[in-house]
Amino acid sequence: MVKWAGFYLSEHSAQMERAEAFDYPEQHPRMSQADIEACLEKALTKDLQIRLQKEEVDLEGHYRPDLVGKITGYDEEGLYIARQQVRYDEIRFVQIEAFHKWSATEAE
C-alpha cells in the first residue's frame, strides 16, 4: 500500500508541475508611446479601470502578471495603480478594462 501511495504522490507532483509550467501571463504586444498616452489620458479623464503590463520579466523571460485597477495618482515620474508606482518608461501595454456591473450578472 505504501508503494502505491508513493506512486500517486509522485504522479500528483508531476501533474502540478506541468500545470504550473503553463500558468504564465501572456505577452501583450508593445504599444507605441502615443497609444499608451492616449489610453492613459482616457482612463484618467473618465475614471476607468485599466490593465497594464510592465516591461519587466523574471529570470526565465516570463512577464509578470498584469496590473489591474484605476489610476490613483500620477507625477512626472510615473503613475500609481493600487498603491504601486509604475514609471512611464516601464509600460509595455495598457488597455481599458471592460466594466461589468455585479448586479447585472445572472445567478448560476
Query: Mean pLDDT, as a whole number?
Result: 84
- Report the top-level CATH class of the domain at 33-94: Mainly Beta
- H-E string: HHEEEEE
Structure annotation, total helices: 2
- As for the CATH topology of the domain at 33-94, it is SH3 type barrels
CATH architecture of the domain at 33-94: Roll
User: Low-confidence runs (pLDDT<50, min 5 residues)?
Assistant: none
**Helix percentage:** 25-40%
What percentage of amino acids are in beta strands? 25-35%
Radius of gyration: 20 Å
The biggest beta sheet reads: 5 strands, antiparallel
Which strand order spans the largest sheet, edge to edge or round the barrel? 4-3-2-1-5
Find the structural class using helix and strand composition.
alpha+beta
Number of strands: 5
Span between termini = 42 Å
Question: How would you explain this protein's 3D organization?
Answer:
- With 108 residues, the protein is α+β, with helices and mostly antiparallel strands.
- The chain has a domain of 62 residues: SH3 type barrels (Roll), CATH 2.30.30.
- It has two helices and five strands, in the order ααβββββ.
- A five-stranded antiparallel β-sheet has the order 4-3-2-1-5, with helices on one face.
- This is DNA-directed RNA polymerase beta subunit.
- It comes from Enterococcus canis.
What is the secondary structure topology, with strand pairs?
Elements: H1 2-21, H2 33-46, E1 49-54, E2 67-74, E3 78-81, E4 84-87, E5 91-96
Antiparallel strand pairs: 1-2, 1-5, 2-3, 3-4
